[in-house]
Amino acid sequence: MTNVASKLIKDTSRILNVSEATITRGGMSLVVAVYVYKIIYPKIRELVRSPAGEAAKSKVTYKGQKGPAVNREFLVQLKKLLKVIIPGLWSRSALILLLHTITLITRTFLSIYVAQLEGRVVKYIVRKDVVRFALMMTKWIAIAVPATLVNSLIRFLECHLALTFRSRLTRYSYDLYFKNQCYYRVSNLDGRLENSDHCLTEDIAAFTSSVAHLYSHITKPLLDSLLITVSLASLARSRGGASLPGPVLGGLVVAITGRILRKVSPKFGALVSEEAHRKGYLRAIHSRIITNAEEIAFYGGHKVERTILQQAYDSLVQQMGVIFNKRLWYIMLEQFLMKYVWSGAGMVMVSIPLLTSTINERDCGAGWLHCKSGQYA
User: Fold this and answer.
1) pLDDT tens-digit readout, 74-90
2) Helix pair 204-238, 342-355: axis angle to 10 deg
3) Quick one: CA torsion of 262, 268, 270, 275, rounded to 10 degrees?
4) What's the predicted TM-score (pTM) here?
5) Which domain range does residue 136 map to?
6) From which residue to which does any coiled coil extend (predicted)?
């Protein structure tokens, strides 16, 4: 198949009097454009045009209720919550977020520098240069101190960011909870919201922690991908190789694995939501026993209350077991795709500039080893 494609490219290049590199880049650009138009664009258009109340017809859970879904309604709600936790550019939340971003960027460039040092270490091992090898190892150990500090600082700022988000959202929720006797109406006049205490404590903490965690795990990979793409393109141009196929291959692999994971992914949103509901119910039963301890003791209702409490706990354990079982197979597939398939694609991406290079290694002469290890310099 590869020979057929190469022959086709050569024949087309000869007929049109255009370089093979130009034809290859044009073909890859056409493939990307078609993929974006046929796959990505319809999804974005559907997301934007669908009404806020029924976008994507939120997935239905096994109880017949609308389950969580990433749609326009979700994005609108998230935007409103972000305005609460980050009220302005000069707020405490925004400043911590800025420091966190700077730390993530610093960690990325430290990783690049460490990779360069490791490349030089390998180069001097091959050359059997003991002095420079010892020097590079000293630098490698020395850079480990700021690298570990930055790693700890990332986790520290992420925790503080989550805590700041939680404080702002909790104050906002308390203002609404105690406004117009809402605390009384929720408990006694309206049964739509159960376990309001759980929503004001555990749910807020889980949400703010997830927001801070997602920011860390989205920003840095995007920056890493951008830098790697630019580096591979520069390496390919410097060696006269193809610069477009590598990034295109990486984008296609990410898109395809993302679609696979999305198709086979269990409804973790609905499952976790049900788990949170059962946790809140268990907590509410404990609170009810504490509140009505005198009546329970007077009427001898401890056996009934224990049965109800045990049933609530067993229900929670059953739900957690369902989540664990579904997560086992999903994580196995996710690890295979993201650890091995992505690693294999990365190796191919790195090899493309070298395999398609128009610079002959023999042209390097005495500097052949330098040419091979130039990416580490």
Assistant:
1) 788 888 888 888 888 88
2) 20
3) 180
4) 0.63
5) 86-238
6) none
